[in-house]
């Protein structure tokens, strides 16, 4: 058990599952009420003062105008943060009884999840272009953590 110094304490696993459950509730809430509401929870441009950057003729003005639409939702950013934190808490916390077998299983699961994730990225680079590729890359951010959790 020499490689467990980077693992979180075992109580983080339960916290991670709670965060994951809350995130699923937020996703369901957002998907149900998104079409029924005409407002955005927080407009990211107004929150960070980025509305003044559009159309100024600077280098990033075209990027900002294409990346951030008028109804950008801070809730989606918050959901993404919660998914990453929950995945880290679940996947990288110690078990109650860690031994050499668990350590080897964790290592092999991490390598397998990297292989699976790299294969998905390679297939998407070949077969997916344009805006759908951006969605695939956004999902790819979370997939390596959750493929590791499933393999482990």
Q: What would you say this structure looks like, in words?
A:
The structure is a single chain. This protein is mostly helical. It folds into two domains: 8-94, no CATH class; 96-152. The chain is flat and about 50 Å long. The protein has helices at 11-33, 44-48, 61-67, 74-91, 100-127, 131-151.
Summarize the structure.
With 152 residues, the chain is mostly helical. Helices cover 67% and strands 0% of the residues. The chain is flat, with a radius of gyration of 19 Å.
Terminal residue distance: 17 Å
Count of structural domains:
2
Helix-strand makeup class: mainly alpha
Mean pLDDT: 75
* Shape summary: flat
For the secondary structure, the number of strands is: 0
Q: Secondary-structure element order, as H and E?
A: HHHHHH
Q: In what range is the share of β-strand residues?
A: under 5%
Q: Uncertain runs with pLDDT below 50, 5 residues or more? A: 57-71
Number of helices: 6
- Please give the radius of gyration in angstroms: 19 Å
Major sheet: size, sense and barrel closure?
Answer: none
Helix content: 55-70%
Write the layout of secondary structure elements.
Blueprint: H1 11-33, H2 44-48, H3 61-67, H4 74-91, H5 100-127, H6 131-151
Helix pairs in contact: 1-4, 4-6, 5-6
Write a concise keyword list for the protein shown above.
0% strand; 152 residues; 6 helices; 2 domains; mainly alpha; single chain
């Amino acid at each position: 058990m020499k490689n467990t110094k980077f693992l979180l304490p075992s109580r983080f696993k339960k916290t991670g599952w709670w965060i994951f459950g809350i995130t699923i509730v937020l996703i369901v809430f957002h998907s149900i009420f998104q079409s029924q509401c005409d407002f955005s929870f927080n407009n990211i441009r107004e929150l960070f003062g980025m509305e003044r950057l559009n159309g100024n003729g600077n280098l990033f003005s075209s990027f900002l105008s294409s990346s951030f639409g008028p109804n950008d939702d801070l809730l989606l950013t918050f959901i993404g943060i919660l998914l990453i934190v929950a995945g880290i808490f679940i996947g990288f916390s110690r078990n109650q009884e860690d031994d050499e077998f668990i350590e080897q299983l964790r290592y092999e699961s991490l390598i397998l999840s990297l292989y699976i994730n790299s294969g998905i990225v390679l297939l998407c680079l070949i077969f997916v272009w344009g805006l759908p590729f951006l969605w695939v890359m956004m999902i790819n951010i979370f997939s390596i953590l959750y493929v590791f959790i499933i393999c482990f």
